[in-house]
Amino acid sequence: MTSSSLARYRAEWFGGVRAARIDILAGMVGTFALIPEVIAFSFVAGIDPQVGLFASFVIGIVIAFAGGRPAMISGAAGSVALVAAALVHAHGLPYLLAATLLAGVFQIVFGLAKLDILMRFVSRSVRTGFVNALAILIFSAQVPQMLGVDWHSYAMIALGLAIIYLLPRLTTAIPSPLVCIVVLTGIAVAVPMPLRTVADLGRLPGSLPSFALPHLPATWATLAIVAPYALAMAAVGLLESMMTASVVDDLTETTSSKARECTGLGLANVAAGLFGGIAGCGMIGQTVGNVRYGGRGRLSTLVAGVFLLVVMVPLRPWVAQVPVAALVAIMVMVSISTFSWGSLRDLARHPKVSGIVMVATVLVTVATHDLAAGVAVGVLLSGVFFAFKVTRLMQVAVDYDPASDTRLYRVSGQIFFASADIFADRFDLRDTARQVRIDLAQAHLWDVTAVGALEDVVGKLRRHGIAVEVIGLNAASAILVDRHAPLMRPQPV
Predict the structure, then answer these.
(1) What is the pTM of this model?
(2) 82: Cβ–Cβ under 8 A, 6 or more apart, which residues?
(3) More confident residue, 38 or 305
(4) Number of Cβ within a 10 Å radius of residue 159
(5) DSSP characters for 422-487?
(6) For residues 490 and 291, what is the distance between their CA atoms, to the nearest angstrom?
(7) Nearest to residue 262, comparing CAs of 254, 270, 252?
(8) Please, which residues have CB within 8 angstroms of residue 359's CB and are 6 or more apart in sequence?
(9) Planar angle of CA 341, 343, 345, nearest 5 degrees
């Protein structure tokens, strides 16, 4: 690690006494926001809640040191649980632990190979759709907690929201969600009411996690079962983590190392698997809540993990009494602050294709509850629209010189797989001119499809007895032609 990197790493940990205090309090808020979602996704994956909670504790500790994005909270939740559910139901928990270990190894390899560069293909519209869909999913996840309850729960949720939004007008010394949890828990204990508590969400761990390797036969058959799920878990986890890191970059106006986040998440998931946990990824709702309440450094991430262990074991009796209404109020606040309300206005101002991409990302994600599926559709649509746009920019102008009986085709724009057929259709293959000149000085050939289209045009014209000359190729295009169509003998500029 260079001196500049060391200085930056030190600043990410120790930003001053005030920053450390804010990081600690924000991390504690992140812990309470993390508990209900981890428990909920544990049920989705078909595992005991303590498996998800143990994993979130281990992931939080490791990612605080090894991750590339300070202030980001990661845990055992998200689309990874949806992928894991099929494996657990078909083969059981030991296979899930093995898949978690292998998924971590895959992620480490992806990080070392710098595959985070693929994030450059995710457009801003897709990122906005991702954030909005996640806000909707966070809110919808709270709806079951608000159904089939009496007025006491609604009153407590309303009181919690009032504390969260009004307290910052008086003081910001302590994050208002933390005050919400303390006040609502105190009221629930002092005044008995028919309220659901954290204890009703699932069995909390009663001991510390212990090191254990999956008890499975080391055979090719085991690998054949585990590997496909591990690869899917690794890809989905990285996608959610990279998207979450990008959101935090925008919120904090800072940059982060996405490659390091890949390897850091891989190390965290390997550690989670070794301690009997499920694989995890970045959690955007909890991360946004952490950032909104001042979390900026790695200390907030570490506190979110450490405090989770504290509330899971020593403070278990107290945490069990926290009313679910307090957690619902916090998550409603997170969903409201996560949603990009300005994107609704942008639908009327921005190009229609951008709006279509954003809305499609939201609809697919909400319909499938799969963030990876939504982003995949958004990226695919962005690519298709981009290809159509670039295709329209390609032009072929035709001139004729009677003195020399020469037809001149001046080509401008980008020629690649999406525009190659249009390029070829611009030529009259039964031209009566004695000579044809193709000027590519204002064009660029990008791939073998473009070279093949040019080669087909030249070949067909020559078979009709027409002399063809290709001129103006830039150096990169000429190299591509020389490599894949050497018989054309182009004349580079």
Answers:
(1) 0.70
(2) 44, 45, 369, 370
(3) 305
(4) 17
(5) HHHHTS-TT---SEEEEEEEEEEE-SHHHHHHHHHHHHHHHHTT-EEEEEEE-HHHHHHHHHH-GG
(6) 57
(7) 270
(8) 129, 347
(9) 90
Give me the residues paired with residue 469 across strands.
437
Q: Running DSSP on this structure, what letter comes out for residue 198?
A: G
Q: List, for residues 161-187, the tens digit of each pLDDT value.
A: 999 899 888 887 777 887 888 899 999
CA gap 280, 272 in Å, rounded: 8
Tokens of 181: 């949890």
The angle subtended at Cα 449 by Cα 446 and Cα 450, nearest 5°, is: 50
Cβ pair 27, 289 in contact under 8 A:
no
What's the pLDDT score for residue 356?
Answer: 92
The mean pLDDT of 80-96, rounded to a whole number, is 83
- Contact (Cβ atoms closer than 8 angstroms) between residue 112 and residue 104: no
CA dihedral (290, 291, 293, 297) positive or negative: positive
CA dist 399 and 435 (Å) reads 12
Least confident of 34-48, 51-65, 122-136, 263-277: 34-48
Q: Does residue 478 contact residue 441 with C-beta atoms inside 8 Å?
A: no
- Given a cut of 80, whether residue 114 has pLDDT beyond it is yes
Q: What's the chain's average pLDDT?
A: 84
